[in-house]
Amino acid sequence: MYTYLVTGGAGFIGSNYIHYMLDKYGDDIRIINVDVLTYAGNPENLSDIEQLPNYKFVRADITDKEAISKLFAENDIDRVVHFAAESHVDRSIKNPEVFVQTNVLGTAVMLNCARAAWEQPDGSYPADKRFLHVSTDEVYGSLEEDGGYFYETTPYAPHSPYSASKASSDMLVKAYIDTYHFPANITNCSNNYGPYQFPEKLIPLIINNALHGKKLPVYGDGKNVRDWLYVMDHAKAIDMVQEKGRLGETYNVGGHNEKQNIEIIRIILDVLKEQLPDDDPRKAHISEDLITYVEDRKGHDRRYAIAPDKIKAEIGWEPETMFEEGIRKTIQWYFENTAWMENVTSGEYRNYYEEMYKA
Ligand code: NAD
Ligand code: DAU
Q1: How many angstroms separate the alpha carbon of residue 49 from the centre of ligand 1?
Q2: Could you give the CA distance from residue 42 to residue 44 in angstroms, rounded to a whole number?
């Protein structure tokens, strides 16, 4: 029975991953979720599983060496899946330091504590110990509009403080692999969407604003391209890389689903109109008139697109959820979870929104 230490499991991807793993393996695995619960961490995301005997939540900061080494000392951890991070590019532009603190220093602490717990006197590691570092395609920088893909061999060229901090954390993982033969993998994934995503990110922000008849802010000309992947497909990729990946290797994960931001917004409006019953008063709000072009993001990367060839060839993973299906499931989830949205859009979120969008 493997024991997983998941960092940042109360966030968007982490909570979906925990659901995926417990659905797949049931009580054949044990999960310890360590999360400090920043504005982005929400225990409500896991309320349906919190009573399970093989799930445990520990509130701690990944930069806290003592707390993390205690977790390794008290539990025989087999697998680390490291999600915890500051993840929003706009916030990194306003306040970069916390990104370095959490994403770089926090990763260093995780690596150091795992190595201290796992390394044997001869420098080797037991076969079942594996560390998976969850990273992003943004480390590769920006692609031209008319072509090219990110491969695992693409040189790193991060532009935002967020992507620079994630690139630094990747470099630390690579250094541990090279220096200590540390048993790790890195996944660099494209934009995720799905249930439990905090509405500072494009898709949930547009769904929430449209339902409330609020303006839909489009940065720049709206033609920046992202490669969207349904979050459960990402969860599956992480599990497959951890079980089947060659140790020390990096795997790119992507949806083969490039879309301009303005296309995404129009699709969301169409699906909202299609899914809301005629007598729902929110239907009256849904209109392209809400689309509002605003000042561009500083240093805004133009296009991201992943070539997931290596993960398909070596591991057999490929995206399964078509965007048309995934966006419908996502919007349906937000319809059914209006209380979740109301809870997360109170307090700190309102301050953030007013400051960010001057609204
Ligand atoms: P998120 O912001 O929704 O969640 C981050 C989680 O980390 C939160 O629960 C937060 O409380 C926790 N956390 C933050 N600082 C912490 C600290 N110091 N100690 C302990 N916990 C802390 O992020 P997400 O979108 O779920 O992303 C998860 C990971 O996946 C990140 O590493 C991100 O870089 C990466 N990633 C995200 C995407 C995406 O599209 N969202 C795509 C590729 C990679
Ligand atoms: O590519 C993977 C990355 O995807 C992850 O590493 C990040 O953690 C994740 O936040 C995401 O980064 P993006 O910056 O691509 O996502 P975001 O949802 O913030 O923005 C998507 C696109 O939409 C981007 O081009 C900016 C634009 N945008 C975003 C917001 C919030 C708007 O036009 N208006 C908005 O209000």
Answers
A1: 20
A2: 5
